């Protein structure tokens, strides 16, 4: 069940569309209007981006309105235009995921429009219980996906709109160029591996990370690392580092030891996930690597494991580029 702050009504609420400002406004509405004229954008500078998209992935048309009397933000997702084809049929099955950052937990979605590159959604979303002051620190995130029945939905493009940039009293309507999501810019992780055949101890040291992807509205993340020892697809043992607040370059210096018999060392792997801790919603993956002798997440990860085996009792240190999935 959706929280009271965000819901998609099954039928439009006519009363919300008929709220009008004017001389008869409640005093609190006038105060809100004054605040609107003196808004600050310092909290959301990281989302202010006037650059052109690196590639054309289409546009999205939407409008915003604010019901001052009922402190409700009204978002209407109207249509998309010139979206790229993601399916073999030469079309896409697009839908829009809506969030009001920094809250990542409560996500709303439009209906899926089948086999079209120019979808018309015409759907209205209501965010209730949002005083205008509260909206100044919110960023509207619209992310267009292509629905896929048999695999992960493909990202088409997204836009971020800091609401402190918007004069909601004007009931603005927007055409925004979608920007392709950042690819393979999750950051890097420095690790070391060592294996002692005599006592069957596999040691992983997580030294530090650099240039991690920012996941929070302040342009930072709260990273920690979660590690699973796996045999085949079966997870056996989990370890976690401490959480490091407000940094993209944490120094972990944390060591984990696992008991792995020599005859099993080529069959096991370490799934290493750098996570962003979130007080409000779910912890979010920043990036991961799979350290393994076979089928590692990349050539670097496989070589690191093989070097550990061929050079027992030696500590092998290597940087790895984090993968988004």
Automatic annotation (TrEMBL):
<dbReference type="Pfam" id="PF00168">
    <property type="entry name" value="C2"/>
</dbReference>
<feature type="domain" description="C2">
    <location>
        <begin position="185"/>
        <end position="320"/>
    </location>
</feature>
<dbReference type="GO" id="GO:0005509">
    <property type="term" value="F:calcium ion binding"/>
</dbReference>
<dbReference type="GO" id="GO:0005886">
    <property type="term" value="C:plasma membrane"/>
</dbReference>
<dbReference type="InterPro" id="IPR001565">
    <property type="entry name" value="Synaptotagmin"/>
</dbReference>
<dbReference type="GO" id="GO:0030424">
    <property type="term" value="C:axon"/>
</dbReference>
<feature type="domain" description="C2">
    <location>
        <begin position="56"/>
        <end position="176"/>
    </location>
</feature>
<dbReference type="InterPro" id="IPR035892">
    <property type="entry name" value="C2_domain_sf"/>
</dbReference>
<dbReference type="GO" id="GO:0030276">
    <property type="term" value="F:clathrin binding"/>
</dbReference>
<feature type="region of interest" description="Disordered">
    <location>
        <begin position="1"/>
        <end position="26"/>
    </location>
</feature>
<dbReference type="InterPro" id="IPR037732">
    <property type="entry name" value="C2A_Synaptotagmin-7"/>
</dbReference>
<protein>
    <recommendedName>
        <fullName>C2 domain-containing protein</fullName>
    </recommendedName>
</protein>
<dbReference type="GO" id="GO:0000149">
    <property type="term" value="F:SNARE binding"/>
</dbReference>
<dbReference type="InterPro" id="IPR037741">
    <property type="entry name" value="C2B_Synaptotagmin-7"/>
</dbReference>
<dbReference type="GO" id="GO:0048791">
    <property type="term" value="P:calcium ion-regulated exocytosis of neurotransmitter"/>
</dbReference>
<dbReference type="GO" id="GO:0006906">
    <property type="term" value="P:vesicle fusion"/>
</dbReference>
<dbReference type="GO" id="GO:0005544">
    <property type="term" value="F:calcium-dependent phospholipid binding"/>
</dbReference>
<keyword id="KW-0677">Repeat</keyword>
<dbReference type="InterPro" id="IPR000008">
    <property type="entry name" value="C2_dom"/>
</dbReference>
<dbReference type="GO" id="GO:0098793">
    <property type="term" value="C:presynapse"/>
</dbReference>
<dbReference type="GO" id="GO:0001786">
    <property type="term" value="F:phosphatidylserine binding"/>
</dbReference>
<dbReference type="GO" id="GO:0070382">
    <property type="term" value="C:exocytic vesicle"/>
</dbReference>
């Amino acid at each position: 069940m959706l929280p009271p702050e965000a819901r998609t009504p099954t039928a439009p609420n006519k009363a919300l569309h008929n709220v009008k400002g004017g001389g008869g406004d409640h005093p609190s509405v006038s105060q809100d209007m004054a605040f609107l004229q003196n808004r600050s954008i310092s909290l959301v500078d990281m989302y202010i981006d006037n650059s052109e998209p690196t590639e054309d992935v289409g546009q999205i048309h939407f409008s915003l309105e604010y019901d001052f009397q009922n402190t409700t933000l009204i978002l209407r997702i109207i249509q998309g235009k010139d979206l790229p084809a993601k399916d073999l049929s030469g079309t896409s099955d697009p839908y829009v995921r809506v969030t009001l950052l920094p809250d990542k937990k409560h996500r709303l979605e439009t209906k899926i429009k089948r086999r079209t590159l120019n979808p018309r959604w015409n759907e209205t979303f209501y965010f209730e219980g949002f005083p205008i002051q509260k909206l100044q620190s919110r960023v509207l995130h619209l992310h267009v996906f292509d629905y896929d029945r048999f695999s992960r939905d493909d990202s088409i493009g997204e836009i971020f709109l800091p609401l402190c940039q918007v004069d909601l009293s004007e009931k603005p309507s927007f055409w925004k160029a979608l920007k392709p999501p950042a690819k393979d810019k999750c950051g890097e992780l420095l690790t070391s591996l060592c294996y002692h055949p005599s006592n069957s101890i596999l040691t992983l040291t997580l030294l530090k990370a650099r240039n991690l992807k920012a996941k929070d509205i302040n342009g930072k993340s709260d990273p920690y690392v979660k590690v699973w020892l796996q045999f085949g697809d079966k997870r056996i043992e989990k370890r976690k580092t401490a959480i490091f607040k407000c940094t993209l370059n944490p120094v972990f210096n944390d060591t984990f030891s696992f008991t792995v018999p020599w005859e099993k060392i080529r069959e096991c792997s370490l799934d290493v996930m750098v996570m962003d801790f979130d007080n409000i919603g779910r912890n979010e993956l920043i990036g991961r690597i799979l350290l393994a002798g076979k089928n590692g997440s990349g050539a670097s990860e496989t070589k690191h494991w093989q070097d550990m085996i061929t050079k027992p009792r030696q500590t092998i240190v290597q940087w790895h580029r984090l993968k988004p999935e």
